[in-house]
């Protein structure tokens, strides 16, 4: 027995009203979530600025008295400069190592491997992201550092004319080059997972058109997959860079720290990162020393924010050329 037209119209009206109410609730939830994220970010920035202000406005004599390793007659900018240099150098080296490997793994999983093998490899890559950073630090300290000592010695002996391999190779392996490898392993699953999902979103018509024109598998990847996923690859790389910039425990456990502007990544006691420096000195800090550490954290916050904003700008510029439209 069917409903009469007035009943059907009334039921349709109630359904539209209910859908309108759900849409309104969902819209306000979405807007509230976005505002909450901005509010939390602003609160973190204000807290860092408020706590860092005493260190930013203090004189060099006060900072030298409060901070054990602070050199006299040195401004805060000059003091934090080597930390920024070490942080950026370690993150860039890790990104340079991890990005080509991640793209190759993602392409193999998405376009070369059989379905069952690709699923297993996908699970294994994702599992790397679940390993705690302290485990990577222990692995880097006890396994990787002794293993790479002869490799770093060989590079230093035969390729010492190149600035990165110049100087004197450390006999312990606790150098920035080892840290870069550990950071590369840590950011590899992030870049691989995002790149893999982007490659899988390549329009099938693009791939079939390339194959119909006689393209090989590599030509298909080069002409259809990579142009489409270019903006996604950049986004994945920037996510990995943000992880590398903020990594603490692995760097703290492996790196022999120093406060120098040096490109000698095989030497010990040359570099230090901001996050590892804060973790190392915070337990014994008090008073103005705490404000100094928070000020260095503010610098790292600004660097991370700048990296993400730059990545967004690059993605927005390259999107129209990526085929994603």
From TrEMBL:
Keywords assigned by UniProt, alphabetized: Cell membrane, Membrane, Phosphate transport, Transmembrane, Transmembrane helix, Transport
Keyword Cell membrane: yes
Pfam family, one: BPD_transp_1
Presence of keyword Endoplasmic reticulum: no
Domain ABC transmembrane type-1: 84-311
Topology term for the membrane: Multi-pass membrane protein
Protein known as: Phosphate transport system permease protein
């Amino acid at each position: 027995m069917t409903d009469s037209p007035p009943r059907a119209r009334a039921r349709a009206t109630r359904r539209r009203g209910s859908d309108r109410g759900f849409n309104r609730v969902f819209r306000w939830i979405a807007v509230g979530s976005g505002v909450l994220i901005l509010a939390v970010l602003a609160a973190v920035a204000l807290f860092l600025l408020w706590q860092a202000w005493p260190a930013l406005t203090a004189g060099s004599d006060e900072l030298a008295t409060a901070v054990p390793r602070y050199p006299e007659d040195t401004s805060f900018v000059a003091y934090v400069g080597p930390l920024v240099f070490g942080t950026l150098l370690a993150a860039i080296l890790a990104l340079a190592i991890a990005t080509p490997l991640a793209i190759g793994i993602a392409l193999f999983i998405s376009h070369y491997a059989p379905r069952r093998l690709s699923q297993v490899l996908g699970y294994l890559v994702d599992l790397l992201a679940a390993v705690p950073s302290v485990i990577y630090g222990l692995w880097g300290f006890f396994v990787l550092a002794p293993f790479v000592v002869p490799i770093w010695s060989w590079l230093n002996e035969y390729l010492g004319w190149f600035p990165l391999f110049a100087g004197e190779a450390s006999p312990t392996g606790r150098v920035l080059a080892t840290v870069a490898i550990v950071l590369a392993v840590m950011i590899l699953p992030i870049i691989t997972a995002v790149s893999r999902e982007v490659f899988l979103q390549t329009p099938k018509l693009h791939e079939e058109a390339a194959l119909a024109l006689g393209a090989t598998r590599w030509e298909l990847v080069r002409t259809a997959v990579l142009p489409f996923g270019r903006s996604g690859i950049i986004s994945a790389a920037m996510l990995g860079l943000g992880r590398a910039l903020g990594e603490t425990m692995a760097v703290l456990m492996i790196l022999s720290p120093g406060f120098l502007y040096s490109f000698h990544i095989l030497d010990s006691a040359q570099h230090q990162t901001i996050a590892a420096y804060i973790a190392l000195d915070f337990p014994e800090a008090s008073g103005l020393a705490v404000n100094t550490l928070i000020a260095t954290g503010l610098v790292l916050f600004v660097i991370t924010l700048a990296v993400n904003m730059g990545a967004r700008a690059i993605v927005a510029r390259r999107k129209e050329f990526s085929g994603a439209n």
